[in-house]
Write a structure and sequence with these properties.
The strands form three sheets. Strands 2-1-3-4-5-11-13 form a seven-stranded mixed beta sheet, with helices on both faces. The chain has a four-stranded parallel beta sheet with strand order 7-6-8-9, with helices on both faces. It folds into three domains: 15-45; 70-173 and 308-339, 3-Layer(aba) Sandwich (Rossmann fold), CATH 3.40.50.2300; 176-306 and 341-369, Response regulator (Rossmann fold, 3-Layer(aba) Sandwich), CATH 3.40.50.2300. It has 13 helices and 13 strands. It has helices at residues 3-7, 18-25, 29-36, 44-56, 63-70, 86-101, 115-127, 145-152, 176-189, 205-220, 237-248, 262-274, 308-324, and strands at 75-80, 105-110, 132-135, 157-160, 171-174, 195-199, 230-232, 256-259, 284-286, 303-305, 336-339, 342-344, 366-369. The chain is of the alpha/beta class. Residues 1-13 and 358-378 have low confidence and may be disordered.
Length: 378
């Protein structure tokens, strides 16, 4: 043997095992394994001690072996309509915060608002043997058969934000009807009387509910509803600009607009400013979602916060329940979780400056609906 080669050869380091951690801590390997897998019967103190020791000894889990042993990959798939929206990014943050606590990894797939990419996402996730899927429907999806197929195959599935009650799939959503009502009621309280609505695609129950909330507030204040004051957009800045041109071209233009989401509202603001319309003096505008740009434009944009981090956490908790009961004889009837919207009133809709308010630390409030119906009839 070449002595030079021999002298420069070093032994490979031993791979840390569960048995080595157990020996270090004078625990049984079973206890260490349960602690690493966040077993509820292991105390928090023991879990912390085991995880700190595992990190110090550079223990790496053999995820393939774990998958073969438990029948779980400890990976979930998340289908998002778009990653360009802070709204969906915040939901993913909520999902991953809780998923990591339970030892789960997340795979993200962007549908770009198309059905074809939703289907490809599901195929990719099935190939990766994910334990379950979280999804928010693409605006282009009107045929839900790919989700129905998942149900038939007993793949754990939870919808968030955008759902459809006809699917009878567990979901976590915001109270969209209440949000539409609160947004419109705020405009009425600010003295606006000719209030229009920039609506979303009609096949989405989410946007239909916001429209109904708008109508509720008009009805309560005995203000007339006119279909001329409803413009259906496609959830884009461009459709907001188009809506502004339409509303301002009416014989009697509105003095305020409730937009179904913030990108459309941003388009409204931009076009009104281009046409010399003073906001909020001549036109009040409020959106929905509380996107990150809302407080950085001029004027700052009023909106409805959707408790996105909490939505992500609740969606993962619901999915985890389905995963853990997948092979059980009894499958729990999971409710629809409905989160309360939180109004965030800024300059774009507030004529009375003393009423400006935000709710950064608003307490989380949820409603559980067990019959898969909205809390309001449509």
């Amino acid at each position: 043997m070449d002595k030079r080669l021999h002298n420069h050869t070093t032994a490979l380091p031993l791979r840390t095992t569960i048995q080595m951690i157990a020996s270090e801590l004078k625990l049984t390997p079973a206890t260490v394994s349960r602690a690493l897998n966040n077993h509820p019967r292991i105390s928090a103190e023991t879990k912390q001690l085991v995880n700190e020791t595992a990190e110090r000894l550079q223990y790496k889990r053999n995820r393939i072996a774990l998958s073969l042993r438990t029948g779980k990959s400890h990976t979930i798939g998340v289908i998002l309509p778009s990653i360009s929206m802070n709204f969906f990014g915040s939901i993913v943050h909520g999902i991953e915060l809780l998923a990591s606590e339970y030892g789960y990894h997340t795979l993200i797939y962007q549908s770009e608002e198309t059905t074809d990419l939703e289907i490809k996402a599901i195929e990719a996730f099935m190939g990766a043997r994910v334990d379950g899927i979280l999804a928010s429907l693409a605006k282009g999806t009107t045929d839900f058969s790919h989700y129905v197929d998942l149900q038939k195959k007993h793949i754990p599935l939870v919808l968030f934000d955008r759902s459809n009650d006809s699917l009878h799939i567990p979901s976590v959503v915001i109270d969209d009807r209440k949000g539409g009502y609160l947004a419109t009621k705020h405009l009425i309280d600010q003295g606006y009387r000719a209030i229009a609505h920039l609506a979303g695609p009609g096949h989405f129950q989410t946007f239909r509910n916001r429209l109904e909330g708008y109508k509720d507030a008009l009805r309560e204040s005995e203000l007339p509803f006119s279909s001329d004051y409803v413009f259906t957009g496609d959830l884009s800045i461009a459709s907001g600009r188009d809506a502004a041109d339409y509303f301002l071209g009416l014989h009697q233009p509105p003095d305020a607009v409730f937009a179904v989401e913030d990108f459309s509202a941003l388009g409204l603001v931009k076009r009104c400013k281009e046409r010399g319309i003073q906001i909020p003096e001549e036109m009040g505008i409020i959106g929905f979602a509380n996107e990150g740009f809302d407080e950085h434009i001029t004027p700052t944009l009023s909106s409805m916060d959707q408790q996105t981090v909490q939505m992500g956490r609740e969606a993962f908790k619901m999915l985890l329940t389905l995963i853990e009961n997948r092979k059980a004889d009894h499958h729990p009837e999971l409710p629809k979780i409905i989160l309360d919207p939180v109004p965030v009133f800024r300059e774009s809709s507030t004529r009375m400056k003393t009423n400006l308010s935000t709710a950064p630390n608003h307490p989380t409030r949820t409603k559980a609906v067990t019959d898969q119906t909205n809390i309001h009839s449509i």
